[in-house]
Amino acid sequence: MEIKILREVLEANRDAAEEVREYLRDKGIFMVNLIGSPGSGKTTLLEKTIEHLKDTYRIAVIEGDVATDRDARRLQKYDIPIVLINTGGSCHLESVSIRKALGEFEASATDIVFVENVGNLVCPAEFDIGEYAKIAVSSVTEGHDKPEKYPLLFNECRAVILNKVDLVQFTDFDSPAYHESIRKLNPGAPLFEISCRQDMGLDKWYEWLSKTRDEWLKSVRR
Amino acid sequence: MEIKILREVLEANRDAAEEVREYLRDKGIFMVNLIGSPGSGKTTLLEKTIEHLKDTYRIAVIEGDVATDRDARRLQKYDIPIVLINTGGSCHLESVSIRKALGEFEASATDIVFVENVGNLVCPAEFDIGEYAKIAVSSVTEGHDKPEKYPLLFNECRAVILNKVDLVQFTDFDSPAYHESIRKLNPGAPLFEISCRQDMGLDKWYEWLSKTRDEWLKSVRR
C-alpha cells in the first residue's frame, strides 16, 4: 500500500520534472540543484557564486526551506529574483513546486536558476526536479565517511563540493578516504575543495559552472 | 490522496510506538533516540557515552543507517548488543523496525537502549519510535541558525547537544543567537555544550542522562 502510493508520488513528480526540463531547454535556462546537509554551506556557496557570476549571467534563485525565510533574506542584497518555497515540514523539494516557482521568473531575462534544496543528504536526492545538474555540497566537518553512508546523492550528482577545507587541520578528516569514496561512487564528477569563508578554491568551481552552462546552452540550441 | 496515506503511515507508526513504549516501561528499559544531521557527531557521542556508562548500566544499541554498517562496526569494540537497521534509502527509523530490533535484546539484561537515527534533521523528528527521550545532536560547524530553520526536532527533544565547541573560534557561530533560539523553541531542555574530540563538557551530559534514567525508572516502577 505504502509502496504503491510512494510510487504514484514519485511518478507524478517525474512527470512534472520532465515538463520542467522541457521548459528550461526551450527557454535556454540552466538550472542547478544544490543539495547537502544542514550547515554544509549551501547558502554561503550561493552568495559567493552569485557575487562572482552576476555580471556575466542573469541569475534567479529558488530557495527551499522547511519553515523560515532566513536563507532567502540572506540573498536579497543581490537584487535578483528569488522565490521562496516553504515546504511546511517536508524534507525535500518536488518538481510541481519548482514548475510553479519558475513561472514567477521572466524567462527571457533568466540565464541560470539556482535551487537551494532543504538541508538534507537523503530525500532531496530521490526527487528529480527537472534540473540539469545536482551538486552535492559537503563539508570537512561532517566527516570523510558521508559519501559512503549516503551514497545516492554522491552517485547522482554532476559535481561534488567539499567545503570548509580551512578547518581540516582541526578535525580527523581522512582526505584520501573521502577522495576514494567519491572516485568509486562517481568517477566522472569533479571534486571542488573549497572554503567559502576563506575564499579558497572557488575559481575552479566558477569556471566549471560557466563552462558547463555554456556547453549545455549550445547543446539545447542546436 | 497523498496526505491521507501519509496519515495512515503515521498512524501505524504511532500504534507500534505505543506498543514499544509499553514494552519498555514493562521491562524497565530506558530508550533514547539520537537525532541530528550527518556528521553532527552522533556516533562519536555514543562511543564516549558507552565508554563512560558501560560499567554502571547494561547498554544496547540500535543503529539506523541508510546503506552501510560503518557506525555499527565502530561500536563493536564495546562488546555490547547492537542491532543494525539498514533503511535501504529511507531517511528515518520507524517504530515497527524498532519493535522488531528490541526483540533481539535480552530484556532482563538491558538497562538502556541508545538508538542512533539516520543522519537527518527533518524526518526522524516526525516519527515517534516509542523512545522516552529524543536528543537533538547539533554542532557548531553547522551554524547557529539551525534550530530556527529546523524547529521540529529542537522543539520535541528533551535535551540539546551542541558538539564541536572546540572549533567555535574558527567559525562565525553566534552563540547568543543559538542559545536564544533554543530558549524560545524549548525553554525546558538542557543544552550541553561539548566537544567529543577534546573531551569537553561531557560530564554534565552523562550526569543528566543517569539522573533522567534513574528518575524514569522510579516512575515506571511505582
Task: Give a verbal description of the structure.
2 copies of one chain form a homodimer. The first copy, chain A, has helices at 2-27, 42-53, 70-75, 95-102, 146-149, 151-156, 175-185, 202-221, and strands at residues 30-36, 59-65, 82-86, 112-116, 133-139, 159-163, 191-193. Chain A has a 7-stranded parallel β-sheet, with helices on both faces. Chain A has a single domain, classed as P-loop containing nucleotide triphosphate hydrolases (Rossmann fold, 3-Layer(aba) Sandwich). With 222 residues, chain A is of the alpha/beta class. The mean pLDDT of chain A is 94. The radius of gyration of chain A is 17 Å and the shape is globular. The first copy, chain A, has 8 helices and 7 strands. Chains A and B meet through helix 1 and helix 5 of A and helix 1 and helix 5 of B.
CATH fourth-tier homologous superfamily of chain A:
P-loop containing nucleotide triphosphate hydrolases
Please give the most extensive interface between any two protein chains, plus how many residues each contributes. Answer: A-B, 42 and 42 residues
**Count of folded domains of chain A:** 1
Question: Fraction of residues of chain A in helices?
Answer: 40-55%
